[in-house]
Amino acid sequence: MEKTSSEIKERIFAKVLEEIKPSELEIRQTTANVNRLMGAIKSVVPRSVEVMVVGSIARGTFLKGDSDVDIFMLFDKSMKRDKIVKLGLEYGKKVAKKEKGRFEIRYAEHPYVRLFIESIGMRADLVPALKIDNIANMETTVDRTPMHTEFINANLSSRQRDNVRLLKYLLKAHGIYGAEVKTEGFSGYLCELLIHHYGSLQNLLKSASRFKLPLIIEPKTKKELSESSLINKFNSNFIVIDPVDSNRNVAAGVSITSLARLVLVAREFERKPDIKLFYGKGFSKSESDSAISKLFMPSGLDIFIILCNMPKKSEDVIYPQLRRMNLQIRNHIQKNGFTVYLATQLISKEKGLMVFVAPKQILGSKLIKGPDVFIANASSSFIKKHRNAIGFTISDSTIYALENTKYKSINDVLQALPASMLKHNDVDLSKSKLIINEMPKEHSEAVYSEIIKKLSI
Question: CA 73, CA 294: separation in Å to the nearest integer?
């Protein structure tokens, strides 16, 4: 008997789940390690401080091999923020010493301790926060995180938790999982809310294949809304209202590009369910240094890489600056008459890389579009502005100026970037290195991975 589309999809889900769901042994080991760490924390904090596990481990949605844990130290809501931060760092350092682990001070809205315990292979974020039962008492955004865990644990079934795992894995394969600034993708909590809202991964993908903007989802009531006031309130066309805080858009960090990628993946899965969609387009690490040239050279493409030093700051601080500079440089290249097919940026081994892929181009002249000839003052001003042009031509009623180009190639443009484009806050390109059609070996894997991600659906 021929299987239905729904049955085929469920068989695919079951097969992928076998690979990505932690085994009972891994779950027991992770639980034991978390309990050990919880005990160590409780031994150094006062009884008045509640210690709570949050995140994917607490919600039962973590993937195989991902045992990173988020532990909150919840202080009485009467305490001042500065004091809980100071005490949180102090307690975190004591735990690190007790567990013979190393630690880093990380920064979100306020500092917290990231602990590495090599003996059990675990990374833990120890975060100080206020213990609240009402969102009105929230001082910082982290204060509501325990409420997220409570909502998910009260509303997701065991089957839905497995669906969350599948969704995370699918999004990872297509480079759109993670709320980090560099990814602009779907957070774990957003994945959980989407499965809660649509009921299953199969329903989510079916709906996503038909998504249209604006899209406003309210998981608390499992409704889709159409109030234009919410679009203005959140300044977004993709809104998922936090069920524990109606003033927060959980999807605020998701770029339209990431959402569009999910829509295309969903449409492809609806058209032809295939397990390959869960694995993305792979590549060989050992051949990544030569793979770029094999990928682009037969297509008559050039690849330009600007390699620069990175300041010792968080990627969440640096990455938006790299992205802004990349866009500015791309626009500058195009303004000078050249085409750029792909532009991206990444951080690899404490270096910043801006990558531009373009067709081979040598320009001696360019055609500049002017106004309609019948707009008298405008066309006269255009001719005056371009009085040194080689000549003018008219197509229908539009005038064009044919001018010599200032730059013959993209290489020329990049070699002569204006000073205003060389520095943005913490990122300085004044001592950067321009590499053309070659791949710095130590960064080849990162660059190739980023490009494959951009070219794959």
Answer: 52
